[in-house]
């Protein structure tokens, strides 16, 4: 992890500030950016979101999925957290704290129903967890999100009859997950065949990962330049949506910590289970929010706040995991080094 990536939380906050400042100092910037659309989809946001998603799809390793039978317990526990506990906690807290704010409710549900497939590889490495398990889990999440994301979001928003365009949700999932996934599989095979696997792993993937971080930061600037005035006039809305987001992290992280201990897992497997089971795929959440409600919506800002809080929380979880390990919280053989 580079020094730049270590301070990602700072760059995220800085880009939000830059976006708001631009909205107040450059007349018409929001209208100009918003005018670049095709079929209601913002071209700048669409390009940035694709550049954010494509590198994550390169993580899919079908061969790794064959290893599920070797140690299925942590994989099953993570899937249960990702697709049952996290979505239900997100929906429950959203309905409890955001009553009457339908777009913010949808934003929290979109985040809670999208297990991470990219950044967890970085978090897991920093935590000195079992990276083989990490790769298997993220590969499986890449596949399951294509199947489960739309029905779970539809089910949880339908509890209170919150109107969402389910067809557009499905289309945006295919566009921002399906297409990058297909291109990721194809380009990976072509490039490995042409240049070799060492070049792909050591040169190509690190390069596109840097592009993805740049696209993420540009997306934040664009979103907040479009929404700067709305944000300043309704800052309380972002504080409001932060309540269920932060409480959700506390509950889901706490659940995963207790469950991994109760099942007698060792540190290297336990910390990966906790990290993946507690994180969200904020890229697809932002993408679907923008597609369904527009770049200038509360839903788009709400999902962006999920990113804002997740980065420092995941970094904090790494330090918490190591601290708990030193206190023999898990049945572990200890950290390396």
Distinctive features:
globular, single chain, mainly alpha, two-stranded antiparallel ribbon, Na+/H+ antiporter like fold, 2 strands, 15 helices, 337 residues
Q: What is the quaternary state of this protein? A: single chain
Second rung of CATH, namely the architecture: Up-down Bundle
* Number of helical regions: 15
Low-confidence stretches: none
Q: What is the highest CATH level, the class?
A: Mainly Alpha
Task: Sketch the topology as an H/E string, one letter per element.
Answer: HHHEEHHHHHHHHHHHH
Largest sheet geometry? 2 strands, antiparallel
Rg calculated over all Cα atoms: 19 Å
Q: What structural class results from the helix and strand content? A: mainly alpha
Could you please describe the fold and organization of this structure?
- With 337 residues, the chain is mostly helical.
- The protein has one domain (10-324): Na+/H+ antiporter like fold (Up-down Bundle), CATH 1.20.1530.
- The protein contains 15 helices and two strands.
- It has a two-stranded antiparallel sheet with strand order 1-2.
- It starts with a helix and ends in an 11-residue tail after the last helix.
- The model has no long low-confidence stretch (mean pLDDT 83).
């Amino acid at each position: 992890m580079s020094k730049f990536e270590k301070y990602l939380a700072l760059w995220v906050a800085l880009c939000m500030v830059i976006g708001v400042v631009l909205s107040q100092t450059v007349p018409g910037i929001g209208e100009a950016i918003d005018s670049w659309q095709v079929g209601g989809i913002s071209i700048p946001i669409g390009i940035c979101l694709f550049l954010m998603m494509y590198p994550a799809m390169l993580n899919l390793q079908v061969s790794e999925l064959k290893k599920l039978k070797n140690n299925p317990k942590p994989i099953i526990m993570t899937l249960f957290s990702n697709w049952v506990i996290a979505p239900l906690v997100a929906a429950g807290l959203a309905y409890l704290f955001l009553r009457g704010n339908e777009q913010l409710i949808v934003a929290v549900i979109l985040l809670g129903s999208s297990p991470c497939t990219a950044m967890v590889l970085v978090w897991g490495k920093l935590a000195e967890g079992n990276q083989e398990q990490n790769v298997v889990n993220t590969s499986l999440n890449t596949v399951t999100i294509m199947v489960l994301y739309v029905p779970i979001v539809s089910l949880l928003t339908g509890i209170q009859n919150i109107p969402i365009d389910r067809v557009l949700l499905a289309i945006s999932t295919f566009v921002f997950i399906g297409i990058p996934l297909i291109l990721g599989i194809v380009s990976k095979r072509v490039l490995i065949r042409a240049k070799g696997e060492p070049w792909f792993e050591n040169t190509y993937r690190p390069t596109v990962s840097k592009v993805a971080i740049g696209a993420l930061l540009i997306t934040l600037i664009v979103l907040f330049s479009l929404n700067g005035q709305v944000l300043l006039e309704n800052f309380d809305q972002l504080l409001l949506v932060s309540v269920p987001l932060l409480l959700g992290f506390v509950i889901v992280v706490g659940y995963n910590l207790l469950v991994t201990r109760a099942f007698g897992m060792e540190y290297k497997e336990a910390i990966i289970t906790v990290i993946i089971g507690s994180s969200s795929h904020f890229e697809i959440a932002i993408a679907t929010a923008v597609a369904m409600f527009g770049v200038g919506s509360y839903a788009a800002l709400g999902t962006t706040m999920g990113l804002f809080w997740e980065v420092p929380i995941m970094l904090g979880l790494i330090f918490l995991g190591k601290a708990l390990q030193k206190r023999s919280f898990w049945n572990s053989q200890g950290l390396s080094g």
